[in-house]
TrEMBL record:
InterPro entries: AAA+_ATPase, ABC_transporter-like_ATP-bd, P-loop_NTPase
Domain ABC transporter residues, every copy: 6-235
GO molecular-function terms, A-Z: ATP binding; ATP hydrolysis activity
Protein name as annotated: ABC-2 type transport system ATP-binding protein
Native source organism of the sequence: Pedobacter caeni
Length: 246
């Protein structure tokens, strides 16, 4: 039996009369790479903020790592990692200071922080950059370091919000290698992106259009369903259907 680590039922978020997330329901299993796709403004980030316990839903229910989204937000935060394109590391701190700081926030002991920091620096090949300010690193290295810090405490789920925005294709592919490694260790990866080609790297994807989940399945199944060669074509068909009101 697979373990369900994310479960939502009719989860919604309203801002006044505007419905940002409209009654979404889905489940995600342990170790799964689950893509949350859609154009900018589709509601992806708003949904993720609710799942992370950072925003209270307007209605519906959800359980993250077995914890109720309304009642157990602190427990949720202890069992997840989070990385945002906009903010993940302090650029005026060194590489080592960032690792130590976030490891402390995640509740690791001093001995664990020392051990995991050394292992992380070696794995990423940052021995010569360990005393550099993060602001001095290339964007690709910042992204890799941000992700590695987000899973340093071995969370059940890591939420990635547009993690590869602004990086070159080679660096994006290297970043996904880190995601695969985390998944193989049993960490569930929930990733939002507007890059349709990245959908091919996910086990399953949901595609949001105007706050609703318009499709949810594996990339290959969706391409078959929509008679499409690429995920871009699938998204185009969904967006066109939404405009027609299908």
């Amino acid at each position: 039996m697979k373990e369900t680590v994310i479960k939502t039922d009719q989860l919604s978020k309203r801002f006044g009369s505007f419905i940002a997330v409209d009654a979404i329901s889905f489940e995600v299993q342990k170790g799964e790479i689950f893509g949350f796709l859609g154009a900018n403004g589709a509601g992806k980030t708003t949904a993720m903020r609710m799942l992370c316990g950072l925003s209270v839903p307007s209605s519906g229910t959800a359980a993250i790592a077995g914890f109720d989204i309304y009642k157990k937000t602190e427990e949720i935060k202890r069992n997840i990692g989070y990385m945002s394109q906009k903010f993940s590391l302090y650029e005026d701190l060194t590489v080592l200071e960032n690792i130590s700081f976030f490891a402390g926030i995640y509740g690791l002991s001093n001995s664990a922080i020392k051990e995991k920091s050394e292992a992380l620096i070696t794995r990423l090949g940052l021995q010569k950059e360990v005393k550099k300010l993060v602001g001095e690193l290339p964007l690709g290295w910042k992204q890799k370091l941000s992700f590695s810090v987000a899973v340093l405490h071995e969370p059940k789920i890591v939420f990635l919000d547009e993690p590869t925005g602004g990086v070159d294709p080679v660096t994006r592919r290297q970043f996904w290698d880190l995601i695969y490694e985390a998944s193989e260790k049993g960490i569930t990866v929930f990733v939002t992106t507007h890059y349709m080609d990245e959908a091919e790297y996910c086990d399953r994807i949901s595609i949001m259009v105007d706050g609703r989940i318009s499709a949810l399945d594996s990339p290959s199944a969706l391409k078959t369903q929509f008679k499409a060669a690429t995920m871009d074509e699938v998204f185009y068909e969904l967006a066109r259907g939404a405009k027609r009101g299908d």
